[in-house]
Amino acid sequence: MTFWKLFARNRGAVVGLGILVLIAVMAATASLFFPADPFSLAGKPMSPPGENGFLLGSDSLGRDVAAGIAHGAKTSLLIGLLATLVAVGIGIVMGALAGYYGGPIDNLLMRVTEMFQTIPSFIFAILLVAIMKPSIESIVIAIAVVSWPAVARLVRGEFLSLRNREFVQACHTLGMSDVRIMLGEILPNCLSPVIVIGSLMVATAILIESGLAFLGLGDPNIMSWGFQIGAGRTLLRSAWWVCTFPGIAILLTVLAINLVGEGINDALNPRLRERT
Amino acid sequence: MTRLLDITDLHVALPPESQRPYAVEALNLHLEPNEILCVVGESGSGKSLTARAVMGLLPKPRVRIAKGSVNFLGEDLAKVSEERLRAIRGSQISMIFQEPMTALNPVMTIGTQIDEVFRFHEKMPGRERRARALQLLTDVQLPDPEQTLKAYPHELSGGQRQRAMIAMALALDPKILIADEPTTALDVTTQAQVLKLIKQMQASHGTGVLFITHDFGVVADIADRVAVMQNGLLVETGTTDQVLRRPEHPYTKALIGAVPDLVPRAARPRSGATVLRVKNLQKTYRSGGGLFGGKGRVVHAANDVTFDLARGETLGIVGESGSGKSTVARCIVRLNDAEAGEILLGDTDLRPLGRAAMRPHRSKIQMVFQDPFASLNPRTRIGKIIAQGPMMYGASADEAKRKTNELLEIVGLDARAYDRFPHEFSGGQRQRIGIARALALEPQILVADEPVSALDVSIQAQILRLLDEIRDRMNLSMVFITHDLRVAAQVCDRIAVMQRGKVVEIGPTATMFSDPKQPYTQELLAAVPGKDWFSAEDMARVHAT
What we know:
Number of strands of chain A: 0
Number of helices of chain B: 21
Strand order of the largest sheet of chain B: 6-7-8-3-9-10
Number of domains of chain A: 1
CATH topology of chain A: MetI-like fold
Number of strands of chain B: 20
Order of helices and strands of chain A: HHHHHHHHHHHHH
CATH superfamily of the domain at 273-286 and 298-358 and 481-545 in chain B: P-loop containing nucleotide triphosphate hydrolases
Largest interface: A-B, 14 and 29 residues
Strand content of chain B: 15-25%
Distance between the termini of chain A: 15 Å
CATH class of chain A: Mainly Alpha
Structural class of chain B: alpha/beta
CATH architecture of the domain at 273-286 and 298-358 and 481-545 in chain B: 3-Layer(aba) Sandwich
CATH architecture of chain A: Orthogonal Bundle
Largest sheet of chain B: 6 strands, mixed
CATH superfamily of chain A: MetI-like
Oligomer: heterodimer
Radius of gyration of chain B: 25 Å
Helix content of chain A: over 70%
Shape of chain B: globular
Largest sheet of chain A: none
Number of helices of chain A: 13
Distance between the termini of chain B: 34 Å
């Protein structure tokens, strides 16, 4: 069966993928539909949705909520993807080295990993961003730094079980180098769980980014959903739309990514395929 | 006499995307009280699913009984409720499995697990239950039954665990005992003891035993009647004597013909040139101890192992599990590092070489692995699996490809295999690919670690023939690790018998079989299942009919 067929067996995953595509299209066409800076005053402040030419209303400074959501989608997806890529990269390197070599190297790397895991991740991320000054790079770094341990542990486990498999030993008897065995033989065999955990990490990364922006630790020059919610927080009773729509955007995105992640997991994990 | 079990027209349906619609098709089989019926077949013959269908243990709903009845003393087990089945299982029909380690609960003592059987099915006071459990363990001849009651599964050996399983299965004096390959995971000597025990217990309790196996040797030792299955169909039934001595169906004949003969093949002249010399090899495994003290366990996996290998010769290393035979093989190809001794390939001692220094010598010794399903990278195409060796040693892509195609032909595979993935091949074909990979570097020595033990008997014969062919064709020397003395008799020129890390006896195959000097060798030979049945003249008769 093709990957798509297996994926499509989970209907929720297809719905999630649809939502995700819509959000991506929205992010890509943000500047087309909302050419103005989302931070600029676009009209009368505190307009409810549908009035004064605002589709989703405006906030206390007259900024267009709809423009903010469209531009914010770019930020969220970008940071989510970048941070996940960096985290998966670090995680694979650490996990692969620890799992493949074992012994003292494993001990050392895993103690380091545990050190990162003992610190509550969101507080750690706040701390890192606060130290480095809020900017896209610092946020990506902060999110990556708090999320790689999960990948490292997963990859280590896979490497531990795969390194003693006979096909890996056959490569040893051929005289293949360690790097080649790790990258060419073992890694492709443990990619499916990594892809699954990575897709779910994108959702977490988006949540962390929103949380940081909500607390005012977002990049001040870039519109973000978390920032919008933070700005509208005090007006929740008088202007509900300022918080609500970005909130829904976050909810939908995270939900969609989780659904897709689940679908990928079902498609890649052969044992789950039997469970129908 | 009434039949205990009467299976009529049984169809077990497989999920729609499977290779065939029914795992078991139109099966008619019956079991009398106080007899042992062996169901024999190769993998995929449906023999295990038959057993599971009787027990109501099919992986429903994907695999289910589509048609037919399983009549157990007037009740149709294919139709009764789950509750009734539960009451029958354990008390009237019980089962023992292939791997006692996974069939027993690792966190409960043997005593508790036997106790459970009584508690679920019968009302009796705790003291009586304990006394019965103790009696059972004594009956299955476990040493120190008192102690065994308190033991956890991991504290027992494989044979003892299987005995405990048998005790549990017979706890309520069931009418039928289903045994699914109960001795396959055991060593030959243990296997012989367990088979004897099953036979004794069966005779004293008058149980009907449905015994599933792939091994005709075991059949010969234990069966009263035999049923042979192939691809879900019953091809032949009859008494043991009928089926083994006068098989009717061509498939049965082929299967019996494929059982390797215990009489060694004719000796070949030994060349004077020695290619490999192993001297006083030592390898110790340590476990336990650790951070909080405690006594560590020291196992001498290879203790003073010495042998040499002549050009063109096949040296068999035989022994039971834990004898260190695999360790020796892995030390020779340098997958494990031995602590002391010499591994002389020509004039170079390989043992102390580091990874980089070892690299140029790697190509001279190659290995064939046991498990054809684990030894090929599932994500790599066959062509690349074979070609990557030569390419690492500097062959161009074209050269490597030509060589790969040549090797595929030698091992009897189609050239189209080049672009396929391992999962598209059967076990035997994969083992051929593994052999081609090992040959790609043009080694002088091939180390084969149980290369046929995971294969069906008919495929086993083909692979052994292939190994023989390439040894002659490429002038290879071979170290052949096996636990199966039948296989050893057919492929080895000389045999080294190992026990607990030591080589206890080494010599030409023929002398080893006709005149074993050491008691351990004699014990091994005596334990080979079915040795009285498959003698040379019997086999000749089978082939003649």
